[in-house]
Amino acid sequence: MQAVLRPEVVATAKKKGFTELTGIQLKAIPAIAVGWDVLVIAPTGFGKSETAFLPILSKLVEAKEGGNANGIQAIYITPLRALNRDMLERLSFLVQGTWNNAGRAPRRHALFRAPQATRQPSSVDDNHSRDAWKHACCAQA
Length: 141
Known about the structure:
Structural class: mainly alpha
CATH superfamily: P-loop containing nucleotide triphosphate hydrolases
Largest sheet: 2 strands, parallel
């Protein structure tokens, strides 16, 4: 897979069936791994969620090794509770497998939430967001 992903993450992703990265993942993962803001636009089933989560999971492993992994390290927000449950199932495998491959006991280092579950109301104007992201790294399938 990508050289920017930790070997533990790659091994777990392969166990889940990800043998090769999609075109969108090849474009976006390196940018996400170095901390760029990235907007990924792709049809259903192109691996957008894994595109975002695999480099984040790699950073969690690095933080843990550096002794900087106290508390929750990532918050993954989905627009719907049903999608949230699906993502929890898919990404929990990656988190637990990565921690096991790294010789660590699995602990909660990621939080999956739907926006409705947060206390403070929030709103995202899709058109405004797209305009604001024009100068960021954008990858399309």
